[in-house]
Structure formats: C-alpha cells, structure tokens
C-alpha cells in the first residue's frame, strides 16, 4: 500500500509529528539514515496505526501516494539544502516538499524559487510546541505556496492543537511567511522567558524559597497570567534532582544557550526597521550570561546587592504586574514587527489568524492571545496594539506597580533589563515630542545631515559654528 505522508529526519520532533499523524488515521513513512531512529519510530507507534521507517530515501519516495507530501525536520542550514538536493532527482512534478524546521526565512525564499524551478512545490512551515506539542497537537505556521498548503491542509488541521474546536493552523501569507511568523514567535518566546527570569530574580531577592516560588507561579497561572511558560516555570520550581535530591534548577549553570531564532528576529527588526527592545534585550542577556568568567571577576569589583525594603506580599504583587506589563509589551513588539514586515516584504500576513493559531499548541500560548485575537479580528491592520482601547486598559492597570518595582530594582542593583526595556518602550511611545530633535541637530552639526523643522516645511542645514 502507499503512504500518505513522508518525514525526513526522525529526531524527536519528526518522530512525534509522524506518530501524531498516524494517530489521526494517516499511513505514514519516516526516513532516517540512523536505523535506531527508524526502529524507535516503529516501536513507538500506537497499535492499529500504519507507521513504517526506512533508511532508504528511494524507498521513502516510492512508498508515497502522489502528489507526494514530504516534510523534513532536520537542523536549519546546510542540512536542509542537502535534503532538497537528494530529493530533487527522485521526485515527480507537483510533489510537495515541506521544511518544518526553524529555517531562516531568507533561506526559505531562496529554496522556494529553486524548488519551483524544478517543478515541485516547497513550503516553509513553522511548528511550535516542542516534543509534546508535536506528539499531541502543535501550533502550525505554514506559508508560501497556496497549492502546497491546500494539499496538506486537512492533515495539518487534523494533527494541530485545537482551541474551542478550531485548529491551530492557518495560512500565514506569501513566500516565506510561515518561517517569518515562526521566527517572530521565537523572538517573543525569548522575550517572555527573559522577563520570567527577571521576575524570578526579584522574588529570590525577596527571600522566596523554591516552594514559595512554585506557589506564586501556581497562582499566577490560575489568574490573568495563565500561560504555558508560567505553567512550566511553576513545575520547574518543584522538580527535584534525582542525583542529589536538591531542586534541580538551583544546580543548573546560568550560561543560556540559543540556536539563533531570537537573534534573527532582532537582526531583521533592525533591517525593517522596527523597535523590539524586549526581544533585543533578551538576546543580549543570553549573551551576557555566557561571559561567565568576566562576570565572576566583575562581581568581585562591584560586590553587593541591596535589600528591597518591601513586604514579600506587596513585592509579589508588584512583580506580578511588572511581568504582566512587560510580557504584554513583548507580544506588542513582536506583533508590530509582523505587521510591518507583512507590508514591507509583501507577505500579507493575516495578524488575526496568527494570534488565533498561537492560542493553542505553541510555546507562547497564553490567556492574552484570546484578547489579541478579538482586537485583530476587529482591526486586522492595527499597526501597534497600544492603540487599542482594551490593551490600553490592561497597560494602565499594571503600570503603577511596574514603575515602583523597576525603580526599586534599580536602587537595589538587581538587573531587570527586559522589564525596564518594556517600560521605556512604552514611555517612548506615549511621548509626543521625544528629545530626538537634539539628535537631528547633532547630526546636522557634524555631518550636514539636514533636518526638518516643526514650523516651516522643507529640509534645512545650518552652519553651526
Ligand atoms: C517552539 C520552540 C522551538 C525551540 C526553539 C528554542 O516553538 O517549539 O521555539 O522551536 O525550542 O528553537 O530556541 P533556542 O534554542 O534558540 O532557545
């Protein structure tokens, strides 16, 4: 018999997504050069499903019904090009190749055109939700070739997460929009993770134990800050190390890794240009974290952090509001970036569908997404969520305590770079006249870069000396 869907790369994401498809009634075929992985695929299949593994690419291609649907989940970069090269001689006109990894959207653009020139379809697709998501329902961000999308749509809808019965997958726009949306998703993810880590550090300074942190995050997850990242943070504070019986997070090195998607978001935001200061700060802080040796030495030159003199209960409330506020800003920045990129790169990204499919399955799913969905449903072209009344109301309610805790952290010497970045972004946006008139004067002074005036139309230059 022929199989409906083929997967290249049976790492945990590829395997789990394939098993998910099989559970939804699709006969699937997986390829990996590593025979232990093809075996692992077959042995982990649910009884009664049709799942087969192979280490022969020819067998994979020959085993699929036409037009073939082949997805790859391999590391971003050269491996994706290598897979395409090896597939091209084996495929027939009209076959569909999907790249479900975290590829850079510029690479995807190039590949779309290359694969098209060979007579096949190529679709870049973001998949979010980690291992569990892939197995039981991810958020899926396909874009580009509409024909390719329509071909796999029923399968993607079947395997995706569902929110109120609605599948967390939709067409994200032209060209490389799928990978673009996923890149920004990851940028927001970096932002929120950094913000949570700053909240953690403030609460630790106030003397909260891991057990108390677990309780605080538990409560937050049951309230207006409900989100996947808050939920897993809650669980992390309760997880014991099986070697020492201590709480594991205390034993983990503070050097944060990254695979690049956050950095790409910042780089591309600079190119647009769009300000995404929370995300930039999150990337920078992962970088600072890796300069461990310098930090250890510098800590000795500038020792000591002052105590914040606020009751624990009050401080928890302030940290809650600051985290809520700054998380909201992280989404606002990412979504404003998507809106700009959508027109600058002619991708026509439907923002209302982006936030709709982010409500479930993905790493940044949270209660807030439902609010964003309602806002973009009313006004899909909204350039910045700060312009929306509902969002403005949320911001206003969290602002007073955010200001207090940012001030207290600065006085005590506790780094809250991303929370501060969120606050400054907000304050800059609500400033009608920024001091950048002075920057313009300076540019004209030393470089004759000219300036515009507020009182007379035209372009001016002054001999300043
Ligand atoms: C997701 C995640 C996923 C992956 C990140 C991690 O949406 O499921 O974003 O794609 O965990 O790429 O990125 P870093 O290794 O750069 O933190």
TrEMBL record:
What residues does substrate bind to? 102, 128-130, 185-186, 190, 259, 286, 443, 449
Q: Which reaction does it catalyse?
A: 6-phospho-D-gluconate + NADP(+) = D-ribulose 5-phosphate + CO2 + NADPH
Task: List the Pfam families hit by this protein, alphabetically.
Answer: 6PGD, NAD_binding_2
Q: What does this protein do?
A: Catalyzes the oxidative decarboxylation of 6-phosphogluconate to ribulose 5-phosphate and CO(2), with concomitant reduction of NADP to NADPH.
Protein's UniProt name: 6-phosphogluconate dehydrogenase, decarboxylating
Subunit organization:
Homodimer.
Q: Which UniProt keywords apply?
A: Gluconate utilization, NADP, Oxidoreductase, Pentose shunt
Query: Which residue ranges does the record assign to the 6-phosphogluconate dehydrogenase C-terminal domain?
Result: 178-465
Residue span of the signal peptide, if any? none
Q: Which pathway is it part of?
A: Carbohydrate degradation; pentose phosphate pathway; D-ribulose 5-phosphate from D-glucose 6-phosphate (oxidative stage): step 3/3
PROSITE patterns per UniProt: 6PGD (PS00461)
Question: Which InterPro entries does the record match to this protein?
Answer: 6-PGluconate_DH-like_C_sf (IPR008927), 6PGD_dom2 (IPR013328), 6PGDH_C (IPR006114), 6PGDH_Gnd/GntZ (IPR006113), 6PGDH_NADP-bd (IPR006115), 6PGdom_BS (IPR006184), NAD(P)-bd_dom_sf (IPR036291), Pgluconate_DH (IPR006183)
Q: Which family does it belong to?
A: Belongs to the 6-phosphogluconate dehydrogenase family.
- EC main group: oxidoreductase
Organism superkingdom: Bacteria
Q: Name one GO molecular function term.
A: phosphogluconate dehydrogenase (decarboxylating) activity
Q: Which organism is it from?
A: Chitinophaga costaii
* EC number of the protein: 1.1.1.44
What GO biological process term is on the record, naming one? pentose-phosphate shunt
The annotated active site, in chain numbering, is 182 (proton acceptor), 189 (proton donor)
């Amino acid at each position: 018999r022929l199989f409906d869907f083929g997967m290249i790369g049976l790492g945990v994401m590829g395997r789990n997504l394939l098993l998910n498809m099989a559970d939804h009634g699709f006969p699937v075929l997986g390829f990996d050069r590593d025979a232990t992985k093809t075996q692992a695929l077959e042995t982990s299949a649910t009884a009664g499903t049709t799942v087969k593994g192979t280490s022969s690419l020819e067998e994979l291609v020959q085993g699929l019904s036409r037009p073939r649907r082949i997805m790859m989940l391999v590391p971003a970069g050269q491996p994706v090009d290598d897979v395409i090269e090896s597939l091209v001689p084996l495929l027939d006109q009209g076959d569909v190749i999907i790249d479900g990894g975290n590829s850079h959207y510029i690479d995807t653009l190039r590949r779309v055109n290359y694969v098209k020139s060979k007579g096949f379809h190529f679709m870049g697709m973001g998949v979010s939700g980690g291992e569990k998501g892939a197995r039981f329902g991810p958020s899926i961000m396909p874009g580009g070739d509409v024909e390719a999308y329509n071909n796999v749509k029923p399968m993607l809808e079947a395997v995706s997460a569902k929110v109120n019965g609605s599948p967390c997958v939709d067409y994200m726009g032209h060209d490389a929009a799928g990978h673009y949306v996923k890149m920004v998703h990851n940028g927001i993810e970096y932002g929120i993770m950094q913000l949570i880590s700053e909240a953690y550090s403030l609460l630790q300074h106030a003397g909260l134990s891991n057990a108390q942190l677990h309780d605080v995050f538990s409560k937050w997850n049951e309230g207006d800050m409900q989100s996947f990242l808050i939920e897993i943070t809650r669980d992390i504070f309760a997880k014991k190390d099986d070697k020492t019986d201590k709480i594991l997070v205390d034993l983990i090195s503070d050097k944060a890794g990254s695979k690049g998607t956050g950095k790409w978001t910042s780089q591309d935001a600079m190119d647009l240009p769009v300000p995404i200061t929370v995300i930039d700060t999150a990337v920078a802080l992962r970088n600072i974290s890796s300069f461990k040796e310098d930090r250890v030495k510098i800590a000795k030159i500038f020792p000591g952090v002052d105590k914040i003199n606020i009751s624990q209960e009050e401080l928890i409330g302030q940290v809650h509001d600051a985290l809520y506020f700054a998380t909201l800003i992280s989404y606002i920045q990412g979504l404003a970036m998507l809106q700009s990129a959508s027109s600058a790169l002619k991708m026509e990204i439907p923002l209302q569908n982006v936030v709709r499919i982010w409500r479930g399955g993905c790493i940044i799913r949270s209660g807030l997404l439902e609010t964003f969905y309602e806002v973009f449903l009313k006004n899909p072209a909204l350039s910045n969520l700060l312009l929306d009344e509902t969002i403005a109301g949320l911001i206003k309610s969290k602002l007073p305590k955010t200001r207090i805790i940012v001030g207290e952290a600065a006085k005590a010497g506790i780094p809250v770079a991303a929370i501060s970045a969120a606050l400054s972004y907000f304050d800059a946006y609500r400033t009608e006249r920024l001091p950048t008139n002075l920057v313009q004067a300076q540019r004209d002074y030393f470089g004759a870069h000219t300036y515009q005036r507020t009182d007379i139309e035209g372009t001016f230059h002054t001999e300043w000396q």
